[in-house]
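A common beginner's mistake is to predict each chain separately and then try to dock the pieces by hand. The better habit, illustrated here, is to supply every component at once so that their relative placement is modeled jointly.
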Amino acid sequence: MTLLAHAIAPAPRPSLDAEGLRGRQLNWSEAGDIGLWSTDWDPAEKLDRGDALEHHRLVERICAAQPCLPVRFGTAFATDDAARASLESRAQALRAALDRVAGKSELAVTLLWTNNPGGAARRPPDEGVGPGRRFMEERRARYLARDTRRARAVELVECLIAGLSVERALVWHDICTGESVAVSLAVLVPSERAAARKTELERLASGFDDVTGVVNGPWPPYSFARVD
Amino acid sequence: MSQELADELTELRREVERLRGILPERVDVDPDEVEQGLARLVLALVEFLRQLLERQAVRRMEGGTLSDEEVERMGLALMRLEQKVHEMARGFGLDPSDLNLGLGPLGNLI
Amino acid sequence: MRELTPADASLLELVDRLLHKGVVLAGEATISVAGVDLIYLGLNVVLAAVETLESRNGGPGGGSPRRS
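With all components supplied together, the output reads:
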């Protein structure tokens, strides 16, 4: 049996009325002043999307009760000792990370392009233009459209950050992460203000003509849990 | 090295770093999946370089120093290159869109 | 590729966080997640090669500031 990790929290073991994934045993492995929540798991068994979502619900419950650092889904330890050793080796960094996210939640905003760039009017092929040249012209138009979109996505990020007026350390973002996605952004906010901040974000995200805004959360601080 | 090339390299590094964050420390899968996974990696890199080549070619064309015939030949060569890479992808059971590093493995989960 | 609906986007954002974010603990194994292609081997080699190329060029971005 291995331990499938969910989240890290400060010791002592918080009281938590919950089961592990698929109703299995939920464990607490403690080292010093931090601990790891995990489920007993058979390593031969593959995880599926349902398990990922159940892991998320469990992490939400853990984070509701105390500061917590979500652990990347799929992380497993062979034994309780291995889990504790891992915690010990990064104890200081993990504690610092817990302090950073204590009392905070993550809001996620996604900006989706509303129009399809390929839908731009196609010039009818010129008479006497060879296939090679036609190809080159099509590619030129494609790369121009991509560059234009990238530049616009950068602008959109700056607008969001300016509108939120938070320090940049509390914001993570990425642009053009897929065909439809202009911006993917995460912001760390005090949990007690999460609802109000979410409304602000929704308003900001809906203020653009060329993208549709989707706001999610409050979620556990997934994007801010990295420990280097 | 030109600025554009440097920018493309930065982009590649970002994509590779993102993918590296996705990598598990231990891979525990059956042999067929490994082969396809390797093919995907190699072809994704080839595809990235191919697109880089295309961009450079477009810039040259915009520079106005190429004859019509040269543009035509360049276009045909690049078209064939794209066909070839996409053919290879399909040979491994991959859709050409699977080769875009930016999307990563998430497409499957929607 | 089909257009993403807001519901798709929400799921995408969540799953992205579950699989790619959160604490990465050293020295642990990872259980493969069915349906997700996790097999990219040798990326560290590629990364090292890219970094070498960049350092010869005077650092990331060719030595000039680049907006990210």
